[in-house]
Amino acid sequence: MLTVLPIRYVADVEASRHFYAGLGLIFQPDVSVDVWAQLAADAGAVGIHDATVSQGRPPGTTELGFATDERLEDIAERLARSGYDYDYDLVDENFGRSVRVTDPDGVVIQIQEINHVAVRSSAAAPEGRPA
Question: What are the tens digits of pLDDT across the range 54-65?
Fold first, then answer.
């Protein structure tokens, strides 16, 4: 199942977490670490990501993303069966695996398999930065 998970890259995770909690989203400490806070809404979630460890995404940018419990290969095959054939690269990340695909308007969408054990391990690296 896919869960809508837009990712907001920010300069200050804690300040942004408090802001979005003030809007009514619910902080999820069990899936959050120093550089990532996840907040739930009735129909999805928002990820708050420290821009300094985001592989070049500046503060203030937002990426449409999805978290999934499906294998990324299965999602890619489903896209291909529906006529959307494309090249994709599965990427091993410090939180699990991801794939980025481009929609018909040229917008890059990230789909993530999140491994919470890997997230915690990465957060335990020196200075709380991903290994």
Answer: 878 899 999 898
